[in-house]
Amino acid sequence: MRRRFNFSPLAFTLLEVVLTLAMSVVLMVLVGGAIQFYGRDMVIRDMDVRQTQLAASLIQMIEDDLRATMHSEPADMEPLETLLAATAGQSSQGGEEDLSAAGIESEDDAMITTEVSSSGLETSTSVLETPGLIGSQFQIQVDLSRLPRLEEYTQMLDPNAGNLDDVPSDLKTVAYFVQSAGAIAGVQDPLNDLSVEGEAIKTDGSGGLVRRSLDRAATVYAANNGSLSLLSASGDLLAPEVTSIEFQYWDGITWLQSWSSDEYGELPMAVKVQLTMSDVLSTDENATRVFSHVVRLPMARPVEEEEDEELSEAGL
Predict the structure, then answer these.
(1) Which burial class, exposed, middle or buried, applies to 275 when counting CB atoms under 10 A from its CB (0-12, 13-18, 19+)?
(2) What's the CA gap between 47 and 125, in Å, rounded?
(3) pTM of the complete model beyond 0.85
(4) Cα 190 vs. chain centroid, distance in angstroms?
(5) How remote is the C-alpha of 174 from its chain's centroid?
(6) What's the rounded Cα separation, in Å, for the pair 164 and 219?
(7) Domains in the chain: how many in total?
(8) Average pLDDT, stretch 196-211?
(9) Phi then psi for 95, rounded to 5 degrees?
(10) Is position 64 within any domain?
(11) Closest alpha carbon to 146 in 171, 126, 127
(12) Does residue 185 sit within a domain?
């Protein structure tokens, strides 16, 4: 009796090996492409979140400074004038009175002598007669009241006599503006002085958003004594990514392109801040992103126009 044996192949054929290798290569290419796409997408999202957080931090810093802006109201000296006039035996409705001994100035003596200009905060400054806000479409300067921090006292120990040192104070003059790239005499990027293994770090220049915070008395002194070069070099370069900054001022009726608290007598009801940053996600070098925010000033009040001016304009 014969036995039948079924002989099955014990190894893969050449065709099966080739097909298996081809399928493995295709699968590895698909998996690698998916991982690369996921990684690139995560990097783009991370850069987008970082830029958004940077813009939010800058706007929050500007908002904190704007909301701390102070504007002092002149004291009402009419009761004191009446009392002094009655004490001197003169009628309070009589002729002109010399009340300079009591620290009361006449309207002619109290006129603003400081020439106010809201342009050129990058290379100079504008000193207000009373603490307040002055700004144009692209620059702003405010006087704010804030208790000094502990680290501000270390700036008084600066051995470099060429720096305009700030002093601890509860009344600061803060200015925001965008410095053009490659500025030589302006605020310098602190990364320019750093080096790694003896090689200087290359930066794109010293352009970007600048915040200058100095004591109001030091600012007035620098502006009145010809220290504008030191004043223009003072400040902190916050973000080189910011290409421009714009401000608009709400007076309760319309948006204005400039404001001066000495001229209007009050602070604006709100300030619109618009930041323009270079888009790091786009391949176009000129692509930008815009972030805007409206800040309400709690100490602002509606601007009151004088009735005489309204009557004169009406021809009455």
Answers:
(1) buried
(2) 36
(3) no
(4) 18
(5) 9
(6) 9
(7) 1
(8) 66
(9) -75, -170
(10) yes
(11) 171
(12) yes
